[in-house]
Amino acid sequence: MPRAKSESAEKPRNLLTLLEIKNAKLPEGKAETTLNDGGGLYLVVATNRKRWMYRYGLHGKMHRQWLGEFPKVSLAQARKLRNDALNLVEEGKNPRIEKQVAKIAAQYSMANTFEAIALEWHAKELESGSWIPSHAERILKRLKADIFPIIGMRAIESLETRDLLYPLTLVTQRGTFNLAKAYRQYITVIMRFAVQTGRIKTNPALVDADRKLTHYS
């Protein structure tokens, strides 16, 4: 099915030069002025800054989206952002809303990595008074040394038994079997905490299989 044509799709593009942008001045008596690069992309020149703006029509209404300031966002980058936004418009999507959704999804993802949840668990245990400071410090140091570099940035819901087993395997290859047992305990309770706080439904550290983490108990 052909994509819908947006209003800015039919307009000429890439009209500005870098020299024009650098030399753009604010006319006397005006608060701002705009330079048209075509395809809905404008450079809005104000007293102390120059900002990129994308104007687009969607569902019979005009909208605008700010793409960043020049020169932090270069002319080439602004055009790419304009083209990306234009593709969304042609699919009937609102670029501003899609950007907000992506931002929320990224924040959720960062808040639900193994490392983020492990740190949340660690803070909770420390605050509860169940650990003495030296014990808490030792656990955190161990996690940072051998667990976080391997699975720390993984989304908690994406982790399977084999993923949790991998850092333990690396530790045992060094001959530090007691440390592997300690790590197995940490990982199991962190994943249990993830279940308790609604991040995942089941704890993959407790599955019944030959490769289960309790192999290191």
How would the blueprint of this fold be written?
Elements: H1 18-23, E1 32-38, E2 41-46, E3 50-58, E4 61-70, H2 75-90, H3 95-111, H4 114-128, H5 133-151, H6 161-173, H7 177-196
Antiparallel strand pairs: 1-2, 2-3, 3-4
Protein name: Integrase arm-type DNA-binding domain-containing protein
Domain Phage integrase central: 114-205
Pfam family, one: Arm-DNA-bind_3
Question: Which consecutive residue ranges, at least 5 long each, have pLDDT under 50?
Answer: 1-7
Residues in helix, %: 40-55%
What structural class should be given to the helix and strand makeup?
A: alpha+beta
Largest sheet: 4 strands, antiparallel
Question: In CATH, what is the class of the largest domain?
Answer: Mainly Alpha
Annotated CATH architecture of the largest domain: Orthogonal Bundle
The N- and C-terminal alpha carbons lie at a distance of: 57 Å
* Strand and helix order: HEEEEHHHHHH
Number of helices: 7
InterPro entries: DNA_brk_join_enz, Integrase_DNA-bd_sf, Integrase_DNA_bind_dom, Integrase_recombinase_N, Phage_int_M, Phage_Integrase
Pfam family, one: Arm-DNA-bind_3
Protein name: Integrase arm-type DNA-binding domain-containing protein
Keywords: DNA integration, DNA-binding
